[in-house]
Structure formats: C-alpha cells, structure tokens
Design a protein that fits this description.
Layout lengths: L11 H11 L4 E5 L1 H16 L3 H13 L1 E3 L4 E2 L3 E4 H19 L7 E2 L7 H6 L17 H4 L4 E2 L3 E5 L4 H12 L3 E4 L6 H11 L3 E5 L14 H6 L4 E4 L22 E2 L3 E5 L7 E5 L1 H14 L7 E3 L9 H10 L3 E4 L2 H4 L4 H9 L4 E4 L1 H11 L2 H4 L7 E5 L5 H10 L4 E6 L9 E4 L3 H5 L11 E2 L3 E6 L6 E8 L5 E4 L2 E3 L3 E9 L4 E17 L5 E6 L3 E4 L2 E4 H8 L5 E11 L3 E10 L6 H13 L10 E4 L13 H12 L2 E3 L5 H16 L18 H11 L3 H6 L3 H9 L8 E3 L40 E3 L27 E5 L3 E4 L28 E3 L10 E5 L2 E7 L4 E6 L5 E6 L9 E2 L5 E5 L4 E6 L5 E6 L9 E3 L4 E5 L4 E6 L4 E7 L9 E3 L4 E5 L4 E6 L6 E7 L9 E2 L6 E4 ...
Parallel strand pairs: 1-15, 6-11, 7-8, 7-9, 9-10, 14-15, 16-17, 17-18, 31-32
Antiparallel strand pairs: 1-4, 2-3, 5-10, 12-13, 13-23, 18-19, 19-20, 21-22, 22-26, 23-24, 25-26, 26-27, 28-29, 30-31, 33-34, 35-38, 36-37, 36-39, 39-40, 40-41, 41-42, 43-44, 44-45, 45-46, 47-48, 48-49, 49-50, 51-52, 52-53, 53-54, 55-56, 56-57, 57-58, 59-60, 60-61, 62-63, 63-64
Length: 1132
Amino acid sequence: MVSYNKLSACCISHEFYKVATINPNKIAVIQACGGVKIAKEFQLFCSENGDGETREKFEEFVSSKTTSVNPPVYEGDECFTYSDVLSAVDSLSSRLRCILDGGDDPNLLKPSSVVNMHHTANNCSSKGQSILGSSDQGLEQYKQLHKTYCPRIVGIYMEPSVEYIVAVLSVLRCGEAFLPLDPSWPNERVQLVISSSKASLIVGYGSSVGGTCHQLDKLQWLIDKGSYPVFYMSMEDFIPKKSDLLLGWPCESERLRSFCYLMYTSGSTGKPKGVCGTEVGLLNRFLWMQESYPFQKEEILFFKASISFIDHLQEFLGAMLANCTLVIPPFNQLKDTIFCVVNLLQEYSISRLVAVPSLIRAFLPALQSIYYSTVQIPLKLLVLSGEVFDISLWKMLVKLLPQTSILNIYGSTEVSGDCTYFDCKWLPPMLEQDAPGSVPIGIPIGNCDVVLVGENSPYEGEICVSGSCVAAGYFCHPSIFPLDNVELHQEVADAENDKNEVNCYFRTGDFGRKLSNGNLVCIGRKDRSVKISGQRIALEEVESVLREHQEVVDAAVVSRCVQGDILLLEAYVLLKQKESNLEFFRSSIRCWIASKLPLIMVPTRFYFVESFPMSSSGKVDYKNLATLAASEAGSRIEIEETQDIDLINVIQKAFSDGLMVVDKISLDDNFFEMGGNSLSAAYVSYNLGINMKDLYTFPTPLKLQKAILHKKVSSSRELRADALVGVNSQVQEKSKLPSNKSWMPDLDSSISLSLTSDYPIKCLKTDSDLYIDPYDFNGRDMNNSTMTKVSCSYSRCNKVRHDARCEGYHCRSVLSWEVPRDKRGLMRERWMVYMESCVDASPLVVFKERSAYLFVGAHSHKFLCIDATSGLVLWEIKLEGRVESSAAVLHDFSQVVIGCYDGNIYFLNFSNGIPCWNFQTHGEVKSQPVVDKERHLVWCGSHDHNLYALDYENQCCVYKIRCGGSIFGAPALDEVHEKLYVASTSGRVTALFVRALPFYQIWVQELGVPIFGSLSINPSSGNVICCTVDGSVVSLGTEGSVIWKVSTAGPIFAGPCISRALTSQVLVCSRDGSVYSFDLENGDLFWKHDIGHPITSSAYVDEHLLLACIDSSLSQRNLLGMNLEETSSPLL
C-alpha cells in the first residue's frame, strides 16, 4: 500500500498565474513558422549538395535569418510573452464564463435550433450532482465530505498552437472541463464525439488569425453545420486587453469539479469512449517530473503531439508551469516531412522531447546522416512512451545521442498519460542479470501504486493502477461511470494495530512481469487493443466501421509488426458479391473508411477473402488469420525479374496505396510532400521490401527506382508479390460518377427495367379486414389493368405531378376500391426490402405505363428503384454520401432527381439509374428537389445556405440565392402566380418572382425560429403555410404579411400537408404526438387527434380512400379515416 503525499500545488490556474507574474516579459511561446521554412530549405540543400562548404554557406544563411539568439527566433516566427498569454487567459475565461451562464458575445455563433440541448443537458453545476462510482480512491480532495459537480464540456477544435493553450487554460480557469477535438479527425467522428459529450460550446480559430501557422478553413464546416454554438478566437482579440470580470479560483470553490478534461479513445464496443481526467492527475504528473528531472527556466521545450494523444497535455503544461519557452511548429506543415523535427531540434536548441518509439525510429535516417554525425544535438532529455520500446532502438539512440538521458514511461489515457517510468541509465547493469525482452516500464511515479493481478501475481499478471493518476471514470451523460476496476484487500499498519483495507485498482488490460530488481516489463495484452504511434486502437471499433460499408458482409482486423517495432493494421473483408476490379475497390474502401476514422486507425492493407478461419467455439480465429497473412506476405519476387517500366509502376502503386489516393503518382512526386508520414512510410517500405530510411533518402518514384536498380538501397532485393497485383492490367479510369449495378457492357439505355435483384424480398402473409391486395375486391389484377398509359408521381405532403396526357385531379392511373366507412382496418406488410441502414426520407411513388415504381434512398448511400407491387429491386446505385431527402421526377418522367449528403444533386436515368449529370453544391443536400416544368428547372436547397435553380435541359445552374441558413425543406412553387417560396433554418422565408430570368426577390419574412419542414401553398388564396420548431403554424400572404398564426403543444420538424380532397384543411404533425387540422383561411382548429408518440414526419392523405397516413417516431404507422363532410376528429 502506497501512502499518498499532499500535492504542493492547488490548481493549474493558480500555478500558471504565479509563474506568469514572476517573469511576465519572458517569451512563453514561439510559433515556429520561420523555423519550419528554414528547415525545409535545409532539406533541399542536403538533397542537392553534400559537401561541407555548402553546409557552411547554409549555416551562414540561417544566421542571417535569426532575429534573437536566446531563445532562438527566426524571421517569420510569432512570439508571445507570459504576459500576453496570461492576459489572453484572463480575458477569454471571463468571456467563456459569461457565455456559459447564458450571456452573449460578438464572437459567438449560436446554433440554428432554438433550444440549445447541449446547454440544457450540461447545466448540472448548480444541481449538486455528485459523480457516480468514482474510481479515484487515492485523491484526498475527493475522499472528503465535499461534493463534486459535473462541469460543462467545452470542445476545443484546434491544432497545437498558442490559441489552443490559451483555450485550455481559460476553460480550466472558469471551472469547467475541456474536450480536445482533433481537426485531423474526419468530420463524422468530430460530430460523434461532440454529440456523445453533449458539449456546451465549441471554441475554434477566428478568421483574423494571420500568417501560415494555422489551417483556418477547418472551423467553417462546424459553423455551417449550425448545430452547435461556436466561439471563434485569435490572440489579437485579447492582447493587450484585460477583463473587468474577476473570476474566483477553481480550487477555492465550495465544490470541486469531478473532472477537468474529457478525452475520447478507441473503444472495444465499436464506439469511442470518453475518459474523465482530473486536475490532480495532471498536476501530480507535472510535479513528479519537476522533482525527479527538474525543469530549468532556460530550457526550450517542443509541442508537436496531436491533441487527440494524451501526451500532448504534458508537452505544453510542463513548459507553461515551469516558466520555460515552448516552440510550436505549424502542425499542417510539420506532417509534410518528418525530418523537419530533427532540424527544429537543432535550430531552436530543444532540450526535451516527448515521442513514441516509432517516431524516433523514423528520425534515425536523419540522425545517422553525415551532417548530424558531426553536429551535437542539444537534446538533454528524451521521453519515450505509448509503445513498446525495443532494446535494439535504445542501443542505436545511445550511440547517436550519448549526452541525452532517455526515459521510458508507461501509461494510458485512464491514468493521466503516465503511471510508471524507467531511466535507461539503469539498463546496462540490468541486461547483465535479466533478459527483459524490451526496455522495462519501470516503477510507479509519485502518488501512484502499480500491482500485478493474476494467477502468478505478484510476479506476473495484469497491470493494475491506483492513486492520483487514475481518471474519475468514463463519461456517459449525465453521469460518470467507473473504470474497469478490481478491489484488492491490503494490509495497512498504523500506530495501534494492523487492519485490512479494500482499495480499487484500474485494470489497464496490459500484462506485465516483475524483474528481480522490482522493475516491470510489459509483455502484451489479452484483448484486441493495440497501440500505434502511442494511440490505443480497439480493433473491434475498426471492424465495426468496416461492417457499415454497403458492400461488406463481415470484417476482421489484425495487426502486424514491421520494421522492428512499427505496427500496421490489416483488414480481412467478406464482400456481398465479388467485385470486378478489386484494386479499384481496395482504394475506394480505404478512402471511405478514412472519412470515418482517424488516419491512425485506417488499415494499411485490405485482403478480400471468402471466409474466415474459425475456432472450435465458432469465433474468428485471429491468430490463425494473422498466420495466413504472414504466409501471404512472404510471397516475394526478385526485382531483377521485373522490367524497368514494371518497377516504376510498382513503386507508383505502392505510393498511391500508402497515400490513399487513386490519382496517378508522377515520377517526381515527393512521397512526404504529398502527405506521407512515418506510418504510411512504414507501409510503403514494408510493401516494397526496402528499409524505411531508404524511402526518406529517395522519396520520389524515379529516385527510388534508380536506387533499387543500382543497388543503393540497404534492404533485401525482394518485392512483395502482391505489390505487382493490377500493375500491368488496364485499370478502369476513375469515374466522377458513382457506381451502379445496371452499368453493364453494351447496355442499351432504352431497354426496359431489368427484373433481377440482389436483395432478399420478404413476402408476408396478410390477414386483415382492410388490406389492399394486388387483386382488388372484385378480383381484378392490377398488373393486367386496362388503365390508360399515363404517368403520375406522388410524394410527401401530397405533392402530385401528372404528365401531359393525364386528367389532373381526376387521374385514373391509380385504382380505387370501395371501402365500407364503418369498418376499422389493419395494415399488413406485403413485402420488405433491406436498405442496410436508416431510411430518413419519404419515398417517391411513380405510376408509369401501367407499372408502379417506388424510389427511396438510405444512409447506406444507396438509392433504389423498386417495383411497388412485388418489392423487386429493379436497379440500385451507390452514391457518394447518405441519402436523406426525397426524390423528384422530371416533367417528362425521363429522369429522377435526388440530393445527396456529398453535396451533389444527381439526375438519374429513370430506366436504369445511370447518372445523366450531377451538380455539386458546397454543403449537404437534404432538401427535396422541386421540378418547375414551365421553365425546365429544378429548384433545390443546400446546407451551404443557397437555393439553386438548375436547367436540366442545358445541364447547368442558372440562378442561386442566399437564404440566411441551411435549407432542409423543399421550396414551394406557385405555378399560377409564378412565385417560389423557400425557408431556412435561420427562420427566414424568401419569396421569389420566377416568371423569367432574371429572377428577383419579392420579399423576406424573418420569423426568428428555424424552419426544417417543406412549405405548402393554399391553392385558393396563394398564401404560403410554414411550420417552425417552436410549434407554430404560420400563414403568410402573397406580400409577406402574417395572415394567421397558431401554436401546437410541441415542436414541428415536418412540413404541413394540404390535400385537394380536404379543400379547407391543412394537416400538421407535432412532436407532442398529435395531428392537428387547421382551417386554411383563418387558422381555426378543426380537430386534433393524439397518436400517443412523437411525430417528426409529414402526413400523407390518400385522396381515393380518404385515409391519412401518419408515421410516429417509434416506427408505428397509423391510418386515420377522413370525412369530407365533417370536421370532427377522424377514425383511427
């Protein structure tokens, strides 16, 4: 049992204030834009000239760019003093406090929805909420009678920068918790984390930030999303301003926050999990380092880790709390070439560096170069963590950096990053007695206890940790759930007697062995989590995402160690059907998964198999799967067996796979300038059978080809056999259009729809008093009907379109049945088509040439044409994004128009689904297109706030207009008065006169409340009916004035329904679970019917059977019998 010492610091905010006020004019942060530029020029010099004279000239050039020596500052760098940072923290923390308390701010962009659900859900600090199941048994502050509160979550969406540091310190100062949101994550993952955390506010860069140090376009998509409150900032907003609002210190509050930061890691359940880290854990880690390896004030530290990696916190907190200078390279430029780090260490005299072993291994080619062998690297302390530290790597580092102390630190996000340490100066004598296998992880840091639990404990078992470092738990709004703990009984001796105490230890999942000298060695894991570049990855999460792909039946992911200690992920995939071009599909699926997971989690290799090896228990045998992969990877060919042209193709293909691009790689494309990093370099070198340092030396296909042929590479002369797959075959040219299963050779687009389907069709037995059968009550076969050959379409809100031969409202294209009005009926499923994912929009039903078709899309990216009578899938197409809108059909019924989440509006051939053309907007398209047959236009809105008019005959956009917010609902076209109305999430309704180009705006009505549903037009008066999310139904006159306004008891997310069968009524569905019928002319309530469950979709009225169809949020469908003669409540 370890006794815990009281920390000498009360809180991070106090400690930083003390340091900043002692030496306010000292440079705290250098944003090394100028240094990186010099480093890149140095690389160019070294690649072109290798003689000492050139190096001396370059060193003179570097000196000429120096503006300060202590600390080194170069032209183009941005410097900030401790006074600057403190002033910014003081100002920002006050503004954040004001915003979180409900105030406004000029830099605050509020969400488009009226109700800020995140703010409401997280407003727990005033409710005396205590954490549930806290595992932090070692914290004296949390063991006392004090209650804790659950802080609000503030997301910080930035790359490493001085603004990020200010944002973190400001959130801590105002008593809340920060959530790092890595801009390198795919947007989908960022949204998932924000949603899971219920973040109250997102903080990002403001547009006023200058220079080349930041990527400013990263925040715009979140602003355009309009779903979260966003505060944008830059250092210019705060220097030299000071706040008038004085905040109390967090450590002096009556109640302590249960955690101060939330970090999401990969989860074995298939979803990321949020770890609630404590301020005590961060402080304990800093104070231990300060005591064991003290910071000197003249030291210069380096901040280069991704903010999704727990180690980044100590990278900048160590410098800020120790009054050191911190160098931050521009993150977007640093990743272009990993060698820049080595140059920056030298240029800025960096004394401490935190890194993962795989990153250091990537540095070795630079450290081993002739230039650096003659130059003393100023590094005093190298801290390695996050991965197994191989002894062979330690031996190389000792030779290259003889004056540098090397630490191996072990930990995870759940233990504030680190809980044990090993000083490598202890290793030489240890190797004489033990054979640890890898560099040990050592002994616990201060105020932490580490034990081994298992059958062979205390000498071997699972590594379990307790103490100040352990996190508060896992976040699951609105509570904190305990970590995976184990309770241990330990004897504790006090002054009077021995007693037995029960203590909780966090089970890390790692297994260790205790050496004879008491140091621990990590020997692996029994679960399926791995660490790559220091970040934990649950292979189950990667598999879970792969299974979401529309062509994947199942997936299994394993890891492989290459180049010594670098792990790569390999995916084995079962496909629904065999792909004709696997190489193209392999690149496609890698790009697809890269849009959903961080790059570190994307498999570097994909194998397509027919089955998985199974264990006796019926589970996937991953060990056998990895063995099969190893044997396949061992298949190699001699380089001499390939011609020069084949070799260059092999290298180009390897580059393309490593960079996850399909486009052709040119002979002179630099792998690292195109985005390559140490991980992708490891994959390429492994696939080509060369040493990774050769790729850094010869980074273009042409240089690498010459080096291999002239035997300048330091590796074997073998290439992986599968590297040649698809090189000499003619690869299909990448199409800009999505794939379609009807795309067959020699396909005649005039041929009628194919009656083949790859989808299972479920036909269900029916037994109902009111069931519409393909045979009507008189035994008439619908398929053999003598209906006139006319075409009509029906979609949500009773939007109907007829072709020129149709009789309009008296159309007989749809059969009708006589149904007794006194009978109650039931609905039964006739057929079912599996859409693979959520269907978020109403289908489009089209009657054409005696046949009935149904067009519908899903989140699975698929858009289908289905025979409405049999359920047979006639054709399907895979678009580039989710489909969340209903489709429309052109006036001549030749094309179907559908919007997509990738921002495209697709025009598809009605007969076979082949894209005729597409128009790209700048945001997701959720709005149903509206066809204007008089002008041959399609009107459609987008999340980019624009309404577009597309000429479908000339295939171009002829008009667009900004509408103040994202457009979810379909516009309403008044063909009689030649007007068009559109609403947006800002609450703006815009009226346009569209008789002929140029169109112009007639009026704008700002309702102030978001409108998500489509608009409808009163056919008798021309007034437009709209529904807002606050539950209001508004009728606007043709001049924009409010004619009437009524309210329902709940929010409204769908549009109103106006049917010609109910000439005086408008039907509105509300989230309160009720359907309302209002008088179109004055808004009087005709009737109200309670379904009993929230309704988010529009009503649809069957104008022949006089039934209103209502879908509730619980996937229940209700039919209401309507009566034209009465206005009483309908019959369910």
